[in-house]
Design a protein that fits this description.
6 helices, 4-stranded parallel beta sheet, 15-stranded mixed beta sheet, alpha/beta, single chain
């Protein structure tokens, strides 16, 4: 191929110059013969490995983009999804996904052939019907640093040989057939920087020492898995973490105190599967206030108690706080005082808790706030006029009284039902503003705001309907 010829020419010229410079004419000939043999052998090995991989996975059904080059006499460095080293022309990356066109025809058990490409550093096979387990032979080389097998149909467990490569990135998202226990073997790879294990139907617990050797880990996500147990105490060793997300899980216990060591965090997302009625418990950690880079905080659907720590006022980069479905207490005025310095805050969700008092006007004056959700609390008083600037406003199932300010209009997606608000109701709010089971300007019935029963369920439904939280990144 042309790439092989280019490589031979480069090595030929380099060898000639070095040998002639030292007057070693016989050595020059021997050197060139060896280079020729090694280069041809390497090229043949890579061609054989890729062709065998192509044929084993029904390659001729992959699609026209791949079929135009794969398995042909075209230089392998020109094959779709193949990237080579610009100097040596060795294959360093294989990418097979929808970025190069639909690949619905790819099917079969994961073959071992790519393990024969010793220069391979990156492998992406995603969004296709790849089945079987990851072959141990894939890690025969010592160069593989990037693996993306997301949205395939492979099964676990991971082979122990995976710990022999300098892996930095692994993405197994959406592999619902993976099953089994949490892949503890990943904790034995100290080079890892990013781990994505979302929506894999994994069970079991996270080993207590999982993060002990992962001081280089920057991003970790294991959402939508029914794993149980507690956060491991070794979590504090992952001092490079910027994103940590375990959402929709079955874990319990307190929020691991050693997490306080991870002061570089930008996103902290910890919520449970609500139906499990489990989740993290204890008071809200004061040390979260030390995460000065934090921009997203989601501790929703847990059993956290207490008031918002005053130390959180140092979180000046926060754009989103989601604390719904907890047992947060205190007054809304005290919360407003803590968040007042957060000029970048766009989303504030404290629905379904036990927050009392009136809505301070300072909330409506926060410069970036556009989504405010305070439904199903113990809030009273009248509605401030300046909340009309909110894009989304949900205040249902509280004890607000009086009338709805005329400044409120349909540009705000508002949910105001289940209060003691009185007519006249705006035309856009005929249904959403009626008292439902409360009476205008009268005391609410015994079915007051709680975290159980009809009030809770209705609030849950309306919040998820209006904010689309079921699919939101903050859910």
């Amino acid at each position: 191929s042309s790439s092989l010829f280019s490589l031979l020419l480069t090595r030929f010229w380099t060898g000639i110059m070095m040998m002639l410079h030292h007057g070693n004419y016989c050595g020059t000939l021997l050197f060139l013969v060896v280079v020729l043999m090694v280069t041809i052998a390497a090229g043949q090995d890579q061609f054989t490995a890729l062709t065998s991989f192509f044929n084993a996975l029904n390659g001729h059904a992959w699609g026209s983009v791949y079929n135009a080059t794969w398995g042909t006499t075209a230089p392998i460095c020109t094959w779709a999804g193949i990237r080579c080293n610009s100097t040596t022309s060795s294959v360093i990356s294989v990418t097979i996904n929808n970025g190069y066109g639909p690949i619905t025809g790819l099917s079969g058990t994961f073959p071992p052939f790519l393990g024969g490409i010793e220069t391979l550093t990156s492998l992406t096979i995603s969004g296709c019907n790849l089945t079987g387990t990851i072959p141990a032979e894939l890690f025969d080389n010592t160069m593989l640093a990037y693996i993306d097998l997301s949205n395939t149909f492979i099964s676990g467990p991971l082979p122990t040989e995976i710990s022999s490569v300098p892996l930095q990135y692994i993405n197994l998202n959406g592999i619902k057939t993976f099953g089994g226990d949490f892949p503890a073997i990943l904790g034995d790879i100290p080079t890892l920087q990013e781990i994505y294990l979302n929506d894999m139907d994994m069970t079991g617990t996270m080993p207590s020492t999982f993060f002990a050797s992962l001081s280089s880990l920057r991003k970790f996500s294991s959402d939508d898995n029914p794993i149980s147990g507690t956060l491991p105490p070794s979590l504090g060793n992952a001092i490079s973490l910027t994103q940590f997300s375990i959402m929709s899980h079955n874990m319990s216990g307190t929020i691991e105190p050693s997490l306080a060591n991870c002061v570089l965090l930008e996103k902290l997302l910890l919520n449970t599967i609500y139906a499990s009625r489990r989740g993290f418990s204890g008071t809200l950690p004061d040390w979260i206030g030390n995460f000065r880079n934090l921009n997203q905080l989601n501790l929703s659907s847990n059993n956290l108690t207490g008031t918002i720590p005053s130390s959180w006022s140092s979180l000046l980069n926060l754009t989103s706080i989601h604390m719904t479905f907890n047992r947060i207490t205190g007054t809304l005025a005290s919360i407003a005082e803590v968040i007042a310095p957060m000029t970048k805050l766009e989303t504030l969700i404290f629905s379904v808790s036990q927050i009392e008092g009136t809505i301070p006007e300072s909330l409506g004056n926060m410069p970036s706030l556009s989504l405010l959700s305070l439904g199903s609390n113990l809030l009273v008083g009248t509605l401030p006029e300046n909340l009309s600037r909110m894009v989304v406003l949900t205040l249902e199932n509280n004890r607000f009284s009086g009338t709805i300010p005329v400044t409120y209009n349909r540009t705000a997606l508002a949910s105001l039902w289940g209060n003691r608000l009185c007519p006249p109701y705006p035309t856009w709010c005929t249904t959403d503003c009626t008292p439902r089971w409360q009476t205008c300007d009268s005391l609410p019935p015994t079915t007051t705001t709680t975290t159980t029963g009809i009030a809770f369920n209705a609030a849950s439904s309306i919040i998820r309907h209006n904010l689309n939280l079921a699919t939101s990144p903050f859910a």
